[in-house]
Amino acid sequence: INIIDTKKIIIYLNGKRGILLLEQLLQSNYKDIIVFTYKRLIELNYYKKNFGLRVFEVTNVNTISHYKKVKNLNPTLSIVAGFSKIFGEKLINLPRLGTLNLHGGPVPKYRGGSPLNWQIIKGEKKIGISIIKMNELIDGGEIIKIKYFKLENNDDISKVHHKANKLFSSMVLKLLPVIFKGHIK
Protein backbone atom coordinates (compact mmCIF):
# COMPACT_ATOMS: atom_id res chain seq x y z
CA ILE A 1 0.00 0.00 0.00
CA ASN A 2 1.34 3.38 -1.03
CA ILE A 3 0.10 5.68 1.77
CA ILE A 4 0.67 9.41 1.38
CA ASP A 5 2.31 10.80 4.52
CA THR A 6 1.77 14.50 3.96
CA LYS A 7 -1.70 15.82 3.30
CA LYS A 8 -1.09 19.39 2.15
CA ILE A 9 -4.18 20.56 0.29
CA ILE A 10 -4.54 23.65 -1.86
CA ILE A 11 -8.10 24.87 -2.39
CA TYR A 12 -8.87 27.25 -5.21
CA LEU A 13 -12.13 28.89 -4.20
CA ASN A 14 -14.29 31.84 -5.04
CA GLY A 15 -17.41 31.54 -2.90
CA LYS A 16 -19.69 29.32 -0.88
CA ARG A 17 -18.73 25.98 -2.45
CA GLY A 18 -15.10 26.42 -1.43
CA ILE A 19 -15.86 28.07 1.94
CA LEU A 20 -18.12 25.18 2.95
CA LEU A 21 -15.49 22.65 1.84
CA LEU A 22 -12.80 24.53 3.78
CA GLU A 23 -14.97 24.58 6.89
CA GLN A 24 -15.68 20.84 6.65
CA LEU A 25 -12.02 19.97 6.07
CA LEU A 26 -10.92 22.00 9.10
CA GLN A 27 -13.62 20.38 11.25
CA SER A 28 -12.35 16.99 10.08
CA ASN A 29 -8.80 17.83 11.23
CA TYR A 30 -7.25 18.53 7.85
CA LYS A 31 -4.96 21.33 9.00
CA ASP A 32 -2.39 21.84 6.25
CA ILE A 33 -4.60 23.80 3.85
CA ILE A 34 -3.68 26.75 1.65
CA VAL A 35 -6.31 28.85 -0.15
CA PHE A 36 -6.05 30.73 -3.42
CA THR A 37 -8.86 33.07 -4.43
CA TYR A 38 -9.34 35.84 -6.97
CA LYS A 39 -11.87 37.69 -4.82
CA ARG A 40 -11.29 39.13 -1.39
CA LEU A 41 -13.69 37.04 0.71
CA ILE A 42 -14.46 38.41 4.16
CA GLU A 43 -15.35 34.90 5.41
CA LEU A 44 -11.72 33.85 5.07
CA ASN A 45 -10.62 36.31 7.77
CA TYR A 46 -12.11 34.05 10.46
CA TYR A 47 -10.09 31.06 9.24
CA LYS A 48 -6.91 33.11 8.91
CA LYS A 49 -7.28 34.38 12.47
CA ASN A 50 -8.45 31.18 14.18
CA PHE A 51 -6.66 28.50 12.16
CA GLY A 52 -3.64 30.32 10.78
CA LEU A 53 -4.95 29.66 7.29
CA ARG A 54 -2.70 30.91 4.50
CA VAL A 55 -4.72 32.79 1.89
CA PHE A 56 -3.37 34.21 -1.35
CA GLU A 57 -5.09 36.25 -4.03
CA VAL A 58 -4.31 35.29 -7.61
CA THR A 59 -5.67 36.84 -10.79
CA ASN A 60 -3.96 34.50 -13.25
CA VAL A 61 -3.18 30.93 -12.17
CA ASN A 62 -1.08 30.28 -15.26
CA THR A 63 1.75 32.72 -14.61
CA ILE A 64 5.27 31.53 -13.91
CA SER A 65 5.21 33.30 -10.54
CA HIS A 66 2.06 31.45 -9.45
CA TYR A 67 3.47 28.13 -10.61
CA LYS A 68 6.67 28.76 -8.62
CA LYS A 69 4.68 29.73 -5.52
CA VAL A 70 2.62 26.55 -5.71
CA LYS A 71 5.72 24.45 -6.40
CA ASN A 72 7.39 25.92 -3.28
CA LEU A 73 4.29 25.04 -1.24
CA ASN A 74 4.76 21.40 -2.35
CA PRO A 75 1.06 20.40 -2.28
CA THR A 76 -0.12 16.83 -2.13
CA LEU A 77 -3.46 17.65 -3.75
CA SER A 78 -5.25 20.66 -5.23
CA ILE A 79 -9.03 21.06 -5.22
CA VAL A 80 -10.83 23.52 -7.46
CA ALA A 81 -14.11 24.48 -5.75
CA GLY A 82 -16.07 27.08 -7.67
CA PHE A 83 -13.00 28.81 -9.08
CA SER A 84 -13.92 29.63 -12.67
CA LYS A 85 -10.49 29.98 -14.25
CA ILE A 86 -8.88 27.69 -16.81
CA PHE A 87 -5.80 25.91 -15.45
CA GLY A 88 -2.78 24.96 -17.52
CA GLU A 89 -1.62 21.35 -17.59
CA LYS A 90 1.64 22.14 -15.80
CA LEU A 91 -0.22 23.56 -12.75
CA ILE A 92 -2.86 20.80 -12.80
CA ASN A 93 -0.16 18.12 -12.56
CA LEU A 94 2.04 19.89 -10.02
CA PRO A 95 0.52 18.37 -6.84
CA ARG A 96 1.68 14.83 -6.15
CA LEU A 97 -1.89 13.48 -6.45
CA GLY A 98 -3.07 15.94 -9.09
CA THR A 99 -5.97 18.37 -9.06
CA LEU A 100 -9.65 17.67 -8.46
CA ASN A 101 -12.45 19.81 -9.84
CA LEU A 102 -15.81 19.99 -8.06
CA HIS A 103 -18.02 20.47 -11.13
CA GLY A 104 -21.71 21.41 -10.77
CA GLY A 105 -22.96 19.03 -13.42
CA PRO A 106 -22.75 15.38 -14.43
CA VAL A 107 -20.05 15.13 -17.08
CA PRO A 108 -19.83 14.72 -19.98
CA LYS A 109 -23.47 15.81 -20.52
CA TYR A 110 -23.12 19.07 -18.59
CA ARG A 111 -19.61 20.30 -19.28
CA GLY A 112 -18.83 24.01 -19.29
CA GLY A 113 -20.21 26.98 -17.40
CA SER A 114 -23.35 27.25 -15.23
CA PRO A 115 -24.21 23.52 -15.32
CA LEU A 116 -26.56 23.74 -12.32
CA ASN A 117 -28.58 26.43 -14.10
CA TRP A 118 -28.64 24.44 -17.33
CA GLN A 119 -29.93 21.32 -15.58
CA ILE A 120 -32.87 23.32 -14.21
CA ILE A 121 -33.52 25.03 -17.57
CA LYS A 122 -33.48 21.67 -19.38
CA GLY A 123 -36.06 20.24 -16.93
CA GLU A 124 -33.92 17.60 -15.27
CA LYS A 125 -35.72 15.81 -12.41
CA LYS A 126 -32.43 15.02 -10.70
CA ILE A 127 -29.47 17.38 -10.44
CA GLY A 128 -26.05 15.83 -10.93
CA ILE A 129 -22.62 16.94 -9.75
CA SER A 130 -19.18 15.50 -10.52
CA ILE A 131 -15.75 15.26 -9.00
CA ILE A 132 -13.23 15.11 -11.83
CA LYS A 133 -9.49 14.56 -11.84
CA MET A 134 -8.53 17.58 -13.90
CA ASN A 135 -6.61 17.47 -17.13
CA GLU A 136 -5.96 20.11 -19.80
CA LEU A 137 -9.46 19.71 -21.29
CA ILE A 138 -12.24 21.81 -19.80
CA ASP A 139 -14.32 19.46 -17.62
CA GLY A 140 -12.84 16.58 -19.59
CA GLY A 141 -10.77 14.76 -16.98
CA GLU A 142 -11.28 11.35 -15.46
CA ILE A 143 -14.59 11.11 -13.58
CA ILE A 144 -14.00 10.12 -9.97
CA LYS A 145 -17.55 10.39 -8.63
CA ILE A 146 -20.97 11.56 -9.82
CA LYS A 147 -23.89 12.04 -7.42
CA TYR A 148 -27.47 13.11 -7.99
CA PHE A 149 -30.12 14.72 -5.82
CA LYS A 150 -33.80 15.29 -6.51
CA LEU A 151 -34.89 18.68 -7.83
CA GLU A 152 -37.87 19.66 -5.69
CA ASN A 153 -40.73 21.81 -7.05
CA ASN A 154 -39.77 24.77 -4.84
CA ASP A 155 -36.04 24.58 -5.59
CA ASP A 156 -34.58 27.69 -7.19
CA ILE A 157 -30.94 28.08 -8.26
CA SER A 158 -29.95 29.29 -4.78
CA LYS A 159 -31.36 26.16 -3.12
CA VAL A 160 -29.78 23.94 -5.76
CA HIS A 161 -26.37 25.56 -5.17
CA HIS A 162 -26.79 25.06 -1.41
CA LYS A 163 -27.66 21.35 -1.85
CA ALA A 164 -24.82 20.81 -4.33
CA ASN A 165 -22.27 22.52 -2.08
CA LYS A 166 -23.24 20.39 0.92
CA LEU A 167 -23.06 17.25 -1.21
CA PHE A 168 -19.65 18.22 -2.61
CA SER A 169 -18.24 18.60 0.92
CA SER A 170 -19.50 15.20 2.04
CA MET A 171 -18.24 13.56 -1.17
CA VAL A 172 -14.76 15.06 -0.74
CA LEU A 173 -14.57 14.04 2.92
CA LYS A 174 -15.39 10.44 1.96
CA LEU A 175 -12.94 10.42 -0.95
CA LEU A 176 -9.90 11.97 0.75
CA PRO A 177 -8.93 8.94 2.87
CA VAL A 178 -9.01 6.78 -0.27
CA ILE A 179 -7.07 9.36 -2.27
CA PHE A 180 -4.41 9.70 0.44
CA LYS A 181 -4.01 5.92 0.60
CA GLY A 182 -2.84 6.23 -2.99
CA HIS A 183 -5.61 4.45 -4.84
CA ILE A 184 -8.21 6.60 -6.42
CA LYS A 185 -10.73 4.95 -8.72
What does the model show?
The two termini are 15 Å apart. 30% of the residues are buried. The mean pLDDT is 91. It contains six helices and seven strands; from the N terminus they run βαβαβαβαβαββα. The protein is globular and about 45 Å long. With 185 residues, the protein is α/β, with parallel strands linked by helices.
Helix % is 25-40%
The major sheet is characterized as: 7 strands, mixed
Low-confidence stretches: none
Q: Please compute the radius of gyration using only Cα atoms.
A: 16 Å
Principal-axes shape call: globular
Query: Would you count the extended β strands for me?
Result: 7
Mean pLDDT: 91
User: How do the SSEs run, as a string of H and E?
Assistant: EHEHEHEHEHEEH
Distance between the termini: 15 Å
Structural class: alpha/beta
Total of DSSP H or I helical runs spanning 4+ residues: 6
Oligomer: single chain
Strand content: 15-25%
User: How are the strands of the biggest sheet laid out side by side?
Assistant: 3-2-1-4-5-6-7
Short description:
By secondary structure, the protein is an alpha/beta fold. It has helices at 16-27, 44-51, 64-73, 89-92, 115-121, 157-180; strands at 9-13, 33-37, 54-57, 77-81, 99-103, 126-133, 142-150. It has a 7-stranded mixed sheet.
Give me some keywords for this one:
alpha/beta, 35% helix, 185 residues, seven-stranded mixed β-sheet, 7 strands
